[in-house]
Structure formats: C-alpha cells, structure tokens
Design goal:
By secondary structure, this protein is mainly α. The protein folds into two domains: 1-84, no CATH class; 87-149, Arc Repressor Mutant, subunit A (Orthogonal Bundle), CATH 1.10.10. Helices cover 73% and strands 0% of the residues. The protein has eight helices and no strands. α2 (34-46) crosses α3 (55-67) and α6 (98-109) packs across α8 (125-144). The longest helix is centred in the first third of the chain and has 28 residues, at 4-31. It is globular and about 50 Å long.
Length: 149
C-alpha cells in the first residue's frame, strides 16, 4: 500500500506527463513538424518551473517558442509523419493556412483568452477573431465534404 506522499508523487507525475503530452501535441499542430515541436517543447520545458508554474503556463511557453520557429509551407509527404497518429479532425487542422491554424489552436483547442492570444501570436484582437472564425468555417466545410473557397 502506498503512503500519502507516494500517492501524491504518483498523481503529480501523471499530471506532469499529461501536461508535457498536451504541450507536444500543441507544438505539433502549431509547427506541423515533429522536429520543430521537439525544439519548441524543449525550450518551453527549460523555462518552466512545475512547482510554481501551471500546466497552462507550459502551453503558453510552447506557443511562444513555436511562434519563434519559422514555419515553411509543407508538402503533403512532410505532413504524413506528423499526422499518422492524429484523428481526422486534427489532421484537418494541419491543412489550415498557418495564421488560421495558430489562432484556432490557441483560441479553440487550447482555450486561451483573446488577450493571451494577441500577446502570444502578436496579432490585433480583430485579426485573432477573424482568423479563428475563418478556421472554424473551413474546418466545418471540410467536415461536411464541401468547401466555399
């Protein structure tokens, strides 16, 4: 039988593992690259202090690090390595144009407040809202099997 301290440590380890997994998935979706995701997550973890910083702080650090990595246009073959384990809905997110993808991930998937997205993405609030809405419309069209573009 585990002591209370051992149980607390096990729960904390599980929470940290979930936070790092979420951070890596977020980075993969933002950068559309496994290699760039590893760089962003490594940088974020290096500046994250788990006893003091929340899991949300780690995600914000990942977004900040991922925004500093150049995001070249990727060919479908290059996306295969990132998308192989993702469900259809997340694979569709990777096909969004970069700015739409970044806004959608930050606002909808991560659930950051508008002002946090403005700060992290370095966009005007109206642009974050516009790009997020455009991403939602595009993903809805993809899901329905039609596209208005």
């Amino acid at each position: 039988m585990m002591s209370a301290d051992e149980e607390a440590m096990k729960n904390r380890d599980g929470t940290l593992q979930k936070a790092v997994s979420m951070a890596f998935l977020t980075a993969c979706l933002l950068t559309a690259s496994t290699e760039q995701s590893e760089v962003a997550v490594t940088k974020a973890i290096g500046s994250w202090n788990p006893p003091q910083d929340s899991e949300v702080a780690l995600i914000e650090k990942v977004i900040n690090a991922a925004m500093r990595i150049p995001c070249p246009a990727l060919m479908p073959d290059e996306l295969r390595g990132v998308t192989s384990d993702l469900p259809f809905e997340l694979r569709a997110v990777l096909e969004l144009p970069t700015l739409l993808r970044h806004c959608f991930i930050s606002r909808v998937l991560v659930g950051l407040q508008l002002q946090d997205c403005v700060r992290l993405l370095k966009l005007q609030p109206s642009r974050v809202t516009e790009y997020t809405n455009a991403a939602i419309e595009s993903l809805a069209a993809t899901r329905c099997g039609w596209n208005r573009s």
